[in-house]
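Holo prediction — NAP.
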Amino acid sequence: MVTGATGSIGTHLVRRLRQDGAAFRALVRDESKGRALGCDFAVGDFEDPGSIAAALDGVDRLFLNSAGALPVDGAQPMIRQQKTAIDAAHRAGVTHVVKVSVWHARQGAKLSQGAHWEIEEHLKASGLSWSLLQPAGYMQNFLGAGAFTPDGHLISSYADSPVAYIDCPDIAACAAALLTRPHGENETFILTGPQALTDADLAGQISAALRRTVTCVETPPDALATALKSQGLPPWFADDLAVLVKEVAAGSQATTTTAVHDLTRRPPRTFEDFLTAHLPALRALTASSAPA
Ligand SMILES: NC(=O)c1ccc[n+]([C@@H]2O[C@H](COP(=O)([O-])OP(=O)(O)OC[C@H]3O[C@@H](n4cnc5c(N)ncnc54)[C@H](OP(=O)(O)O)[C@@H]3O)[C@@H](O)[C@H]2O)c1
């Protein structure tokens, strides 16, 4: 069963499993989204454990992914939701779980890194076999409003430090390999793109793709936190996010790994590939900027 089936990884995983002729079911919250996927689906919500238990009937392998670590009432619902899903999977007779985590998940870390570590530990103690995918930052983050200024320039918080961004279809391809071939049991895979790129590199490539100059607007981590607080995000969340951004700015995602190639037998997609695939969306997102 594929959870997060309508998300940035899940949609590609569903497409790939269909192409491969694998028997699978997608979990969706919204029936119309399930119909649009064009595969077997079950309607369920991580907030409704009974619906997850019902959806898991007959399932042997589970792809576990859900929305990120945005807080609700000061807590990250992802932790409770995924732990509950792991317990339900165990009860349903699932044998293997492929979970999307995050690079540098570790005890005591802030936000998603700490949250994923807690879920990883729960999974490892569950008695199920597991594979952990620990991706670098997603290229898809550049399709979100927070990546650009209102006038279409790149918000730059990592200074000169390169980041080995990964394209979500590559994460999906790794998950498909682990779900359909019996290997990678109880292993952790750090997934990166083929190159680590600085914000200046990214701005250069985006400029070339859009055929106009996109500059870097320096927004150091503490300034980013201040801006997020002024937009209404809880202060503790904005401050914790600044800590994570500082780690990346210090080079925590500056290296590449061979894991995508090892698992899929082909190289990971480049940022240029990503820009080509998403040019209309990127153009719309940055449209308010006058050509330089
Ligand atoms: N962004 C990054 O750079 C990055 C890097 C490393 C790791 N990660 C991790 O990647 C994961 C995915 O993050 P994302 O923001 O990219 O999410 P996403 O995959 O784009 O979307 C989340 C998916 O989860 C589903 N979902 C959300 N709440 C649910 C619920 N209560 N019950 C059932 N399904 C639910 C959504 O379904 P609907 O269609 O119904 O909303 C959607 O399919 C997070 O754990 C994050 O920590 C992100």
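READOUT: Residues 138-166+194-254+269-292 form a domain with the UDP-galactose 4-epimerase; domain 1 fold (CATH 3.90.25.10).
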